[in-house]
Amino acid sequence: MRCLVTGADGFMGSHLVEALLGWEGCEHLTAMYHREPVRWLSDRRHPGRLDIVRGDVRRTSSLVDLPDADVVYHLAAMASAGQCENAPEAARLTNFQGTVNMLNRTLEMTGSPLFVFTSTAALYGEPEYLPVDEAHPVDPKGAYTYSKMSSEITIHSYGRDQGLDHAIVRPFNVYGPRQSEDFVVPTIVNQVLQGIQLRLGDGRPVRNFTYVTDAANFLLALATRPEAWGRVINLGSRETASIDQVARMVLGRLHSDLEPFYDVAKFREGDPTVLEMDPSLAERLLDWRPRVPLDRGLAMTIEHYKAEWDKAQLESARVLYSSY
After folding, report:
1. What would the pLDDT profile of 156-187 be if each residue is shown by its tens digit?
2. What pairs with residue 101 in β-bridges?
3. Pairing of strands 240-242, 206-208
4. Fewer CB atoms inside 10 Å of the end CB: C or N, the chain?
5. Tell me: the pLDDT tens digits for 128-159?
């Protein structure tokens, strides 16, 4: 099977690339990045099996030479809701027009490729009932969720009108190494590592937390499960925790005596207090269960960011002493 991943330099995209390279079913992989080379990969480590290419989903000219694939994982996006609000036109261009461009390129490929799109659980808004399943109404608000909803509608249209095989995934709070500090877990971990303060918006929200390698395996499973195609599927663990509980688990892991400080200035308007999902459809169609519980996932995440922090400290010391 030939696979293509857009957004290979992103958080989930990078872990999906690693999962696909570890899967015998993926005979050849094209990893497309936009801003940064995929530093943790090397063509030499996977001769003839991996191509690392630079591309921009916003520009059709940069997609023309993408090779054909049997499954296209479209993860390239502006993933931060805050960034999308600050730059709504950029969000529309990247998240929506970029998706349309990739849909059109996929239609040009030989065979009948599967188009897998990562949307967002934020579309559900304030839940009308719990746990939230795929039949729950959507309530997009803001540039980020509107761009994802527009993309979902367009993908369904391509499926109906052009016969494109597709699957839409709505992730709930995926976390792990390489995630941006725009998201809650790395924000907590990095603040605790700095040891100055732990300043958050609200400790009450309850979420399902899924470690990123489990999310990557979820996406991988879609490639061989036609019964899941043509659907919207929730991606998430059954395990839930509040933001305050996550913060205290990190504090305990790092033996820190900081106390969480909840600052109304960092509070995100419109975030539901409880967003608990129902993973039954994924369990049934994909035979998927997360393998990494929250406590172990947080330990691995902390280990990653601590190594990054230690490396940054050593580099700062090297620069400082080299000036004498």
Report:
1. 999 999 999 999 999 999 999 999 988 999 99
2. none
3. antiparallel
4. C
5. 999 999 999 999 999 999 999 999 999 999 99
